[in-house]
Write a structure and sequence with these properties.
By secondary structure, the chain is an alpha/beta fold. The chain folds into two domains: 153 residues, Alpha-Beta Complex (Aspartate Aminotransferase, domain 1), CATH 3.90.1150; 240 residues, Type I PLP-dependent aspartate aminotransferase-like (Major domain) (Aspartate Aminotransferase, domain 2). Helices cover 38% and strands 18% of the residues. It has a seven-stranded mixed β-sheet, with helices on both faces. β4, α6 and β5 form a beta-alpha-beta unit. The termini are far apart. Bound molecules: 4'-deoxy-4'-aminopyridoxal-5'-phosphate. The site of 4'-deoxy-4'-aminopyridoxal-5'-phosphate has 14 residues, from α5.
């Protein structure tokens, strides 16, 4: 690498990859849209014009309202006109927007105590602890639980926050094929039989942790939880389940993937989730036994050294939890859970009928439309924006190289008319850019 004029090696590896140099630069207008409204079922975007060089842009001062298929607003609680906003506003008046400290240093307010009690109750476990950021909940708590000599077995499609958390503590990491329980068992069997390599030969692992997600955010797949629970029991491994995309959104009562399969929440050693999606708020939680949560309260990097969750954020989550648990005296929560499930099945079925390839389970509100090629990501995002529909384009390195996709997140807040409009536009774009790959004719009835 060349030194610059002052003799420094480059700080950023900006031109390291072909993709950042040639591809991303040419299609980066597909991302980074500043939003100027609540990320509800519609969202207002700041308009931009692309400069003559074709890849930088400037804001024009005008705005466009789009149908929002891009935000993780599964239950429609991101709307500020919703029933929770007044709780958040009251909390600002009462507590301000900061806690003024970490959890152990006067950063715990009574809202945190109430929220953690409610979260544990909602999930059906003994206790829970909350954190200011979902990403940090994974990245900073997993290292608290592991050390060199431990083995982590991680699904290949796990989120970046999990991967970071798994790499930090110096444990041995093995990766199993996405949702492939046979491969997981093979790794478990071989690892237990052999143990960890040491100077004397092999010795047993200190502990084994299996790490999976409830609904995978780029795939829309659902974890094969009952089989994984059976394996973790058989091989005496611990199980860490990230419910970021499933809590609130999946299961008859919105209690996540554990609820969806009717499993016992106590069979999952570490239940993790975020409040950024179904709760329209921010932050994350870990739930489990009292012993686990007490340990994290004392030892977690995220509670010892990081600012506590902001009070209005906690107030919003409490309000949503009460609605989901029916404590507001209505069946609003149940209604939203059912609407999301209905919207999801309807939208997925219609897309499949068009012959467009999508990934994931029929009940998953994350819908990745496979466009495969980079150029098609750009073509689709741009055309949809012109038609006033916001979606997220995702490509390498977040997906395999030739598996670019448009990711759509469905919401209970979407009306049937909105979904029908989106479906009609998607079909038109799919015809234009050649997306109808499925050879199997699908019965439209
Ligand atoms: N886990 C998963 C599976 C995620 O998809 C995400 C982000 N979408 C996170 C954790 C991080 O959560 P947050 O965005 O709330 O910080």
């Amino acid at each position: 690498k060349e030194k610059n004029r002052d003799g420094y090696l480059p700080l950023f590896d900006r031109f390291a990859s072909f993709y950042s140099r040639y591809v991303y630069r040419r299609i980066r207008d597909c991302w980074n849209y500043p939003i100027c409204s609540v990320p509800g079922n519609e969202v207002v975007l700041k308009d931009r014009v692309t400069n003559d060089n074709g890849w930088t842009f400037e804001f024009t001062g005008s705005k466009t309202k789009c149908l929002n298929l891009a935000s993780y607003n599964y239950l429609g609680f991101a709307e500020n006109s919703g029933p929770c906003a007044e709780f958040a506003i009251d909390a600002i008046y009462k507590y301000g927007v900061t806690t003024g400290g970490t959890r152990q240093q006067y950063g715990t307010c009574d809202l945190h105590v109430e929220l953690e009690k409610l979260t544990a109750e909602f999930l059906g476990v003994e206790d829970a602890i909350t954190f200011g950021m979902g990403f940090a909940t994974n990245a900073l708590n997993i290292p608290t639980l592991l050390s060199p000599g431990c083995l982590v077995i991680s699904d290949e499609k796990n989120h970046a926050s999990l991967i970071l958390g798994i790499r930090l503590p110096g444990a041995t990491v093995k990766v199993f094929k996405h949702n492939d329980v046979k491969h997981l068992e093979q790794i478990l069997r071989e690892s237990i039989y052999k143990g960890q390599p040491s100077q004397e030969g092999y010795k047993p692992w200190k502990k084994i942790l299996i790490v999976v997600e409830g609904v995978y955010s780029m795939e829309g797949t659902i974890v094969r939880l009952p089989e994984i629970i059976a394996l973790k029991k058989k091989y005496k491994a611990y199980l860490y389940l990230d419910e970021a995309h499933s809590i609130g959104a999946m299961g008859k009562h919105g209690r996540g993937i554990v609820d969806y399969f009717g499993c016992d929440p106590k069979d999952i050693d570490i239940l993790m989730g975020t409040f950024t999606k179904s709760f329209g708020s921010a932050g994350g939680y870990i739930a489990g036994t009292k012993e686990l949560i007490d340990f994290l309260r004392k030892n977690s990097f995220a509670s010892k050294y990081a600012w506590a969750m902001a009070p209005p954020v906690a107030a919003q989550i409490i309000a949503v939890l009460k609605i989901l648990m029916g404590r507001d005296g209505t069946n609003e929560g149940q209604k939203r859970i059912e609407t999301l499930a209905r919207n999801t099945r309807y939208f997925r079925r219609r897309i499949e009928q068009m012959g467009i390839i999508i990934h994931g389970n029929e009940d998953s509100p994350v819908v990745p439309i496979l466009v495969y090629l980079y150029s098609k990501i750009a073509a689709m995002v741009r055309t949809l924006i012109k038609e006033k529909i916001a979606t997220v384009g995702v490509g390498y390195p977040a997906t395999p190289l030739m598996e670019g996709r448009i990711r759509i997140c469905l919401s209970a807040a979407h009306t049937k008319e909105q979904l029908d409009y989106a479906l009609a536009v998607i079909e038109k774009v799919a015809d234009e850019i050649g997306l109808k790959y499925s050879r199997k004719p699908i019965d439209p009835t």
